[in-house]
Design a protein that fits this description.
Aldehyde Oxidoreductase, domain 4, six-stranded mixed sheet, 35 helices, DNA polymerase, domain 1
Length: about 1300
C-alpha cells in the first residue's frame, strides 16, 4: 500500500500490486507493507486482529494482501459501507477460506456494523431464544483492540517538505533499462522526441506483465505519472476533459460527482462509463492504471474504448515539433494491436468526454467469465440519438470489443437504422445487420465463436428494451410500443447486496474445563503470524552465502523426440553456473517410487511443460533469462490430447477395472424406462496461492541434505530424493513448516521442482532454491482429472432406480501419478447418495500428451458424485417430477449396501436433508422461484438440493491409514512440543492436534506448540490428505499424550493439589522419560479391488446443500442468491475451523462446476495459465446469503472424540449451484418451446448457460460441424 500526497496536500492511500510496481515509480511516495501496521511482538492493528480472530486466514499466503486492502480503505474512509469493503477486495484472491470469515472480520469497521446474519442477528431476538451459538466473529467489540486513527503512521514529514521529489526530472539507469520520470509536459515531450520508441507508462499494469511473464525488455521507459498537465481534470460547458495520466479510480470519482451535479440527460455517458468501471479489474489496478494507457494499448477487449468511441470522445495529442492536435476516438484512430494514429513522438495529453443530449441514450455492456476483475469475452458501447421529440433514429453508434484485434464499429448497421422508428421490428433487422457487419470465422482467436456472436445480438436487444423503457417513461415517440413486463428483466442493471451469513453449531457443555479446548471454536494457532506477515513461507527464507537459483527448462512440444539441446548461449550469460539435464542425475532419473516418469526427459518429451533441464545461476532473474536461451531441437510425433482422442486411438493406461453389483440385465428388464446420457467434467487448476517451491541446503558431510519443500508428502519426498541422489533415505531430511495451499497438488507434483533443486545442490555443494512463477506452475503441474461419464439408467415409472451402467473415462495426462487412485475413488462414489440394486461401473484411464494430472481435493469423488446427480436430474426431467422427490425416494437408508459391498452405517443423510429443508425454507422458496420464472422471460431463477455421502479413509489395502506423533514435555516450564507426520496447509491440523493434547494433558493450549513436520523426527508419515489427518494423527497424539499422563499419574496422585509444572518436575527428578511416541492405525479398513470385498472406508461423512441462483438468459451470467448447508461433522473438534473448511471447499467446488475451465490449444499448450485468464471464484462470487449449520446430535464412533473428517466432503455440495443453474435454464427452454431434457457439461460457464437458453438469437449462429475447422482450444 502506498500513501501519496496529492496536489491539494491531502494524503491518499492506495492499495496496489507490488509485483507490478517498479521501485522507481515509488520515488517520493511512502510505502506501507504488512509489517508496518502491526506486529505480534508489539501491537496488532485492529484489522489484523479481527481477521485473525474471525478465522479469516487458513493457509495464510493471501492474508497480507487482504489486510492491506482493508487497511487502505479504512485510512481513506474510517467508516466504509459493507459494499465498499467488498469492492475493496475485488482484486484479492483466496483459495482457502471462501471469503466469508474475512468479510465478517471487517463488519465491525463498517457504518452498518451488523452481524452477518442481518435481521436474524441474535441481538434482535427475544431473551432466552438464542438457540445454537453463532460464530464468534460477531462477538462484542470489547474483545478487540479499539480503533484509533491517531495511532496510524503519518505521511513522512520529509516527503511533505521536500518538493524535489515531484518537481525534478529523475533518471534511473539499470542493467538493461533506463527509467525517466519527467516533472513537466515540456520535459516529457523532449524525452519523447529524443527517444521516440520509448515506452510510456503510468501504472505499469500492462507493461509489467509483459516484462515479468514474457521476458520483454524495454531499453527506455518514461513515466508520465508526475506530469501536472496530464493529471488535470476540467469540467467545461459541453464536456469533461480528463488528463491522460489520471487513474481510473480518479476517473470514476470525477464522473460520479459530475453525474450528481448535472441534469440526468446530460450525464448518461458518464453513467455508462461509471457502470463499466465497476467491473474493470480490481481497485489495485484501477488505483494506478491511467486513461491514456487504456486507450493506447488498443486491446480488443478494452472496456472503455468501446464507450469512448460510441460517445464521440476525442483526444488531445502533443509533440515537441508539431505542438498540439485533436483527433476523434473513432474506428480510424485504432489501427491494430498497440497501433493507433498517435505518432511515435506524440503524447496523449487528455481525453474529452462530451455531455449527452436530452434525446440521446448510451449504455455499455460487458460479459466476462467472472463478473469481477476479469477481461471481457465481448463488450459493447451502444448509443442512439433520436430526432427531436420523436422515436425516429437520427444516428447510432454500435461499437463492440472482443471480436477482432481492436474495437469494431458496425457502420452499415448504424447507417441502415437511420430514419427507423424505435419499434419491435427493428430488433430482427438490427440483429441481421450486425451479423453481416461483424463476421467471425470459426477458427477466430479466443474461440467461443457462436457465443460471442450471440452476445452481440443479445446486447443490442438489452439496449433496445432499456431505451424503449425510457421512451415510454418520458412519452417520447408516436406511438411507443410498451415493454412487456416479462421483458423488463432484460433491462435491469446488476445489483448485489452485501453478503449475509449464519454459522450454527452446538457449544461445548457448561461443565467442560476451560483448559479443555476440544470442541471450542478457535482460529488457527498461526493466524496472528499470518495477518502480520510474520508467518514464513519457503521463499521468505533469507538467502545463505553462495546460494544459487534454479529455473526449469521445459518442453514446447506435446510429443516429440529430442534431437539436440544447445545451452551455449545460456551458459555464456553473466552469473550462469550450469545447465543440468538427465546426464547430471547422480542416482536414478526415474521418480521412483511415485511413478516411472523421468526427472529430466532424456530422449522423448510427452507433453508441453515436461522438464528437460534446468539453469543454475547466481540470481533468479539471471536463471530465468538464461533458461529462455536454451535451444531444443525436436522431431514432432503424433499427440493425443483429449479423452475423445484417446478413445479413438485406444490410448489407455493399465489400471482400469470394472465393479459389478447385482444383476444388471435383470435390473434393466424390470425397469419401466431406460435413459442414456453423457456428461463431461473439465479439469481444474489447484491454484494454490504459493506456487511450487523448494530450497535445498547441503550439510557438507555424509551426503546429508536438508530440504525445505512445500509438499504434502514428506515421506515420499524423502524416498524419491534418496533415489535421485543415490544416497540412503536417512541422509535426507524433509522439513515442512507450512504450505501456502495444497489441495492435493503438492503431494507428488511437488517433486517436479524439488528433484532438480536437490541435484543442483549436490552438484555445487551450495544451497539452491526454485519457486515457480504462476504461469510456469500451471503449465507444469497438471490439475484435477477431466472426466467423461457415459451412463445408462433403468428406473420405474415412480422414479425408483433399478439399474445403472456407467463408464468413466479419466484423462491422466502422460503418466499415472495419481490416476489409478483417482479413478478408483470416482468409481466407488458414482452411486452418490443413492441406493441402486444393480450396477456396473467401468473405469478407463486415458493416456494423453498433457502434463500428468494429480490428486485434487476429493481425489476423484467429485467426478463420480457429479455423474450420479446428473442421472437423478435427467431422470426427474424425463418423468417430469421434482428432483427432490426422486432423491428422497432413492436415498441410502441405514445399513444400505454399496456397489463395493460396504454397508452404510450411522447413515445421517435423511437427517441432513430434513434439517436442510427446514433451514432453507425450501418448499416456500420453490414456489417463489416458479412464480418469478412465470413473470420473467430473460432472467430465470433455479433452486436445487444435492446431498453428499463421502467415505473417509485413504482406501486401498489400508496401509496408508496410519499416523505417528512425537511428544516432548520440557521439565523447566512444563511446555509441550508436538511433532507429527501431517503437514499444515491451512486446514487447521496443528490447531486441532493441540486441542486434543490439551484435553488429554489437561493443560491450556498456550503451553503446547507444534513447530514443523520433519522426516528426521517422525519417519514414514502418510501423505496429508483424504480428510483423514485429524483422525490418524489426532489419535497418535492422543495415545502419545496418554502415555505421558500414565507416567505422570504417580506424581499427580502424590501431589493432587500441585500444578502441571510440579508433576513434570517431579517426574524428571525421578528420572522418568518425558518424551514418547504415539502411533495409530485405523482398525478394520482394507479393500481388495480384485474381489470387491473389504472395508473401503472407515466411515461416511454426510451433508446436504440447497442453492438458489439467478441467470441472465441473454448473456449466460449468473449469481448465487443463497446457499444453505447442513453438514454432519460428528462432534466437531473445532467448529470455527470446520465451518471454514466447509465454506472454502464449497467455493472451490463452485469454481469447479461454474468458472474454472482449462483450455488447451490444439497443439497441447495450456492457454489460460495465470490469474488474468484462469478465474477462480472471487469475493463477489460467494452466495448472497450463506448459511452453514452442523447436523444436530451427530456422532461418530469410529474417529477421535466422535469427530469427522471435513476437508473434502463439502466440495461437491457445490453441485447444488450447477443443478440450480440447470433448473433455471430448463425454465428458459420451456418458454422457448424447447425440451427440459438437455446436456449441460461442467463447468457451467457463461457460454454454456447462454447457448443452452436457446432462443431467436442463438438460432442465428448454429454451430459448425466438428472437423470442418481448427478450434482455438480443445477440452481435455
Amino acid at each position: 500500500m502506498k500513501p501519496r500526497r496529492n496536489l491539494n496536500k491531502k494524503t491518499n492511500h492506495y492499495a496496489i500490486n507490488a509485483c507490478l510496481a517498479p521501485v522507481c515509480s515509488l520515488h517520493g511516495l511512502a510505502v506501507t507493507t504488512i509489517e508496518g501496521i502491526g506486529s505480534s511482538k508489539t501491537r496488532l492493528h485492529p484489522v489484523q486482529e479481527r481477521i485473525a480472530k474471525a478465522n479469516g486466514t487458513q493457509c495464510g499466503f493471501c492474508t497480507p494482501g487482504f489486510v492491506l486492502s482493508a487497511y487502505a480503505l479504512l485510512r481513506n474512509k474510517p467508516k466504509p459501507s459493507m459494499k465498499e469493503v467488498e469492492k475493496s477486495f475485488q482484486g484479492n484472491l483466496c483459495r482457502c477460506t471462501g471469503y466469508r470469515p474475512i468479510l465478517d472480520g471487517l463488519r465491525p469497521f463498517t457504518e452498518e456494523n451488523l452481524c452477518g446474519r442481518g435481521k436474524e442477528c441474535c441481538r434482535n431476538r427475544e431473551s432466552g431464544d438464542l438457540g445454537e451459538v453463532p460464530a464468534p466473529a460477531s462477538c462484542s467489540p470489547s474483545a478487540y483492540v479499539p480503533e484509533d486513527q491517531t495511532q496510524e503512521p503519518i505521511f513522512p514529514p520529509e516527503l511533505q517538505l521536500q518538493h524535489d521529489f515531484s518537481s525534478k526530472l529523475l533518471v534511473f539507469k539499470g542493467e538493461r533499462t533506463t527509467w525517466y520520470r519527467p516533472a513537466t509536459l515540456d520535459q516529457l515531450l523532449e524525452l519523447k522526441a529524443q527517444y521516440p520508441e520509448a515506452i510510456l507508462i503510468t501504472g505499469n499494469t500492462e507493461i509489467g506483465i509483459e516484462v515479468r511473464a514474457r521476458n520483454i525488455c524495454y531499453p527506455v521507459v518514461i513515466s508520465a505519472r508526475h506530469v501536472p498537465e496530464l493529471l488535470q481534470v476540467k469540467e467545461e460547458d459541453s464536456q469533461i476533459s480528463i488528463g491522460g495520466s489520471v487513474t481510473l479510480s480518479t476517473l470514476e470519482e470525477v464522473l460520479i460527482k459530475a453525474s450528481e451535479r448535472l441534469p440526468e440527460f446530460q450525464s448518461r455517458f458518464h453513467v455508462a462509463i461509471i457502470e463499466m468501471l465497476r467491473w474493470f479489474a480490481g481497485p489495485q489496478i484501477r488505483n494506478v492504471a491511467c486513461v491514456a494507457g487504456n486507450i493506447l494499448t488498443t486491446r480488443r477487449i478494452s472496456d472503455l474504448n468501446t464507450l469512448f468511441i460510441a460517445t464521440g470522445c476525442y483526444v488531445t495529442l502533443a509533440s515537441k515539433d508539431q505542438g498540439q492536435r485533436k483527433l476523434p476516438l473513432d474506428h480510424n484512430f485504432f489501427i491494430s494491436q498497440r497501433k493507433t494514429l498517435v505518432q511515435e513522438k506524440e503524447v496523449l495529453v487528455a481525453v474529452h468526454i462530451p455531455y449527452s443530449k436530452k434525446n440521446e441514450y448510451c449504455y455499455g455492456y460487458k460479459q466476462a467469465q467472472r463478473r469481477e476483475d476479469d477481461v471481457a469475452i465481448v463488450n459493447a458501447g451502444i448509443r442512439v440519438l433520436f430526432q427531436d421529440n420523436s422515436n425516429v433514429i437520427d444516428n447510432m453508434s454500435l461499437v463492440f470489443g472482443g471480436l477482432a484485434t481492436t474495437s469494431l464499429v458496425a457502420h452499415n448497421a448504424a447507417k441502415q437504422a437511420q430514419g427507423r422508428r424505435w419499434a419491435d421490428d427493428l430488433v430482427p433487422d438490427m440483429c441481421r445487420w450486425l451479423a453481416d457487419d461483424l463476421p467471425l470465422s470459426q477458427d477466430a482467436p479466443g474461440g467461443q465463436v457462436e457465443y460471442r456472436r450471440t452476445l452481440v445480438s443479445s446486447f443490442f436487444f438489452k439496449f433496445y428494451l432499456t431505451v424503449q423503457l425510457h421512451l415510454m417513461q418520458c412519452k417520447q415517440g408516436q406511438p411507443a410500443p410498451k415493454v412487456l413486463s416479462s421483458d423488463m428483466s432484460a433491462t435491469h442493471v446488476f445489483h448485489r447486496d452485501p453478503s449475509r451469513s449464519t454459522q450454527v453449531y452446538e457449544d461445548v457443555p457448561d461443565d467442560q474445563s476451560l483448559d479443555d479446548a476440544v470442541g471450542r471454536p478457535m482460529p488457527t494457532m498461526s493466524s496472528v503470524q499470518q495477518t502480520t506477515g510474520e508467518a514464513q513461507y519457503y521463499d521468505d527464507m533469507p538467502c545463505a552465502d553462495g546460494e544459487l537459483f534454479l529455473t526449469l527448462v521445459t518442453s514446447t512440444k506435446a510429443h516429440a523426440k529430442i534431437l539436440s539441446i544447445d545451452a551455449n548461449e545460456a551458459l555464456a550469460m553473466p552469473g550462469v553456473h550450469a545447465f543440468l539435464c538427465h546426464k547430471d542425475v547422480p542416482g536414478s532419473n526415474i521418480k521412483r517410487p511415485v511413478n516411472e516418469d523421468e526427472i529430466f526427459a532424456s530422449e522423448e518429451v510427452h507433453c508441453i511443460g515436461q522438464v528437460i533441464g534446468a539453469i543454475v545461476a547466481n540470481s533468479r532473474i539471471q536463471s530465468q533469462r538464461a533458461a529462455k536461451k536454451v535451444k531444443v531441437e525436436y522431431k514432432e510425433l503424433p499427440a493425443v490430447l483429449t479423452i475423445e482422442d484417446a478413445i479413438k486411438a485406444e490410448s489407455f493406461f493399465p489400471g482400469g477395472r470394472t465393479i459389478v453389483k447385482g444383476d444388471l440385465d435383470k435390473g434393466f428388464g424390470q425397469s419401466d424406462h431406460v435413459l442414456e446420457g453423457e456428461l463431461r467434467m473439465s479439469g481444474q487448476s489447484h491454484f494454490y496461492l504459493e506456487t511450487h517451491v523448494t530450497r535445498a541446503v547441503p550439510r557438507g558431510e555424509d551426503g546429508e541434505m536438508e530440504v525445505f519443500c512445500a509438499t504434502q508428502a514428506p515421506h515420499f519426498a524423502q524416498a524419491v530424493a534418496a533415489e535421485a541422489l543415490g544416497v540412503p533415505a536417512n541422509r535426507i531430511n524433509i522439513r515442512v513448516k507450512r504450505i501456502g495451499g495444497g489441495f492435493g497438488g503438492k503431494q507428488t507434483r511437488a517433486f517436479v521442482v524439488m528433484l532438480p533443486v536437490l541435484i543442483a545442490a549436490k552438484k555445487f555443494n551450495r544451497p539452491v532454491r526454485c519457486m515457480l512463477d504462476r504461469h510456469e506452475d500451471m503449465l507444469i503441474s497438471g490439475g484435477r482429472h477431466p472426466f467423461l461419464g457415459k451412463y445408462k439408467v433403468g428406473f420405474s415409472k415412480e422414479g425408483r432406480l433399478e439399474a445403472l451402467d456407467v463408464t468413466l473415462y479419466s484423462n491422466a495426462g502422460h503418466s499415472t501419478e495419481a490416476s489409478v487412485g483417482v479413478l478408483d475413488k470416482a468409481m466407488v462414489n458414482v452411486d452418490g447418495s443413492y441406493f441402486i440394486p444393480n450396477m456396473r461401473v467401468t473405469g478407463i484411464i486415458c493416456k494423453t500428451n498433457l502434463p500428468s494430472n494429480a490428486a485434487f481435493r476429493g481425489y476423484g469423488s467429485p467426478q463420480g458424485i457429479f455423474v450420479s446427480e446428473n442421472v437423478m436430474f435427467d431422470v426427474a426431467a424425463y418423468l417430469d417430477i421434482a428432483p427432490l422427490e426422486l432423491q428422497a425416494l432413492n436415498m441410502y437408508k441405514e445399513n444400505g449396501l454399496t456397489h463395493y459391498n460396504q454397508h452404510v452405517t450411522n447413515c445421517n443423510l435423511q437427517g441432513c436433508l430434513d434439517q436442510l429443508l427446514e433451514q432453507s425454507n425450501y418448499v416456500t422458496r420453490r414456489t417463489e422461484v416458479d412464480v418469478f420464472n412465470s413473470e420473467n422471460r430473460w432472467k430465470k431463477r433455479g433452486i436445487a438440493i444435492t446431498p453428499t455421502k463421502y467415505g473417509v479413509s485413504y482406501g486401498g489395502s489400508g496401509f496408508l491409514d496410519q499416523g505417528a506423533a512425537l511428544i516432548h514435555v520440557y521439565q523447566g516450564d512444563g511446555s509441550v512440543l508436538i511433532t507429527h507426520g501431517g503437514t499444515e496447509m491451512g486446514q487447521g491440523l496443528h490447531t486441532k492436534l493441540i486441542q486434543i493434547a490439551s484435553r488429554v494433558l489437561k493443560i491450556p493450549v498456550s503451553k503446547i506448540h507444534i513447530s514443523e513436520t520433519s522426516t528426521s523426527l517422525v519417519p514414514n508419515a502418510t501423505v496429508s490428505g483424504a480428510s483423514s489427518c485429524s483422525d490418524i494423527f489426532g489419535m497418535a497424539v492422543l495415545r502419545g499424550c496418554e502415555i505421558i499422563m500414565d507416567r505422570l499419574e504417580p506424581y499427580i496422585d502424590a501431589n493432587p493439589d500441585g500444578a502441571w509444572e510440579d508433576w513434570v518436575r517431579a517426574a524428571y527428578m525421578d528420572r522418568v522419560s518425558l518424551s514418547t511416541t504415539g502411533f495409530y492405525k485405523t482398525p478394520d479398513v482394507g479393500y481388495d479391488p480384485k474381489t470387491n470385498t473389504g472395508m473401503r472406508f472407515n466411515y461416511f461423512t454426510f451433508g446436504a446443500a440447497c442453492t438458489e441462483v439467478e441467470i441472465d438468459c441473454l448473456t449466460g451470467s449468473h449469481v448465487v442468491r443463497r446457499t444453505d448447508i447442513v453438514m454432519d461433522v460428528g462432534k466437531s473438534l473445532n467448529p470455527m475451523i470446520d465451518i471454514g473448511q466447509i465454506e472454502g471447499a464449497f467455493l472451490q467446488g463452485y469454481g469447479f462446476v461454474t468458472l474454472e475451465h482449462l483450455k488447451y490449444s490444439p497443439e497441447g499448450s495450456l492457454l489460460n495459465r495465470g490469474p488474468g485468464s484462469y478465474k477462480i471464484p472471487g469475493c463477489g462470487d460467494i452466495p448472497g446469503v450463506f448459511n452453514v449449520s452442523f447436523l444436530k446430535g451427530a456422532s461418530n464412533p469410529r474417529a477421535i472424540y466422535s469427530s469427522k473428517g471435513v476437508g473434502e466432503p463439502p466440495l461437491m455440495l457445490a453441485a447444488s449451484v450447477f443443478y440450480a443453474i440447470k433448473d433455471a435454464i430448463s425454465s428458459a427452454r420451456a418458454d422457448a418451446g424447447k425440451s427440459r431434457t438437455f446436456r449441460l457439461d461442467s463447468p457451467a460457464t457463461s457460454e454454456r448457460i447462454r447457448m443452452a437458453c436457446e432462443d431467436q438469437f442463438t438460432k442465428q449462429f448454429p454451430p459448425s460441424e466438428p472437423g470442418t475447422f481448427k478450434p482455438w482450444f480443445v477440452n481435455a
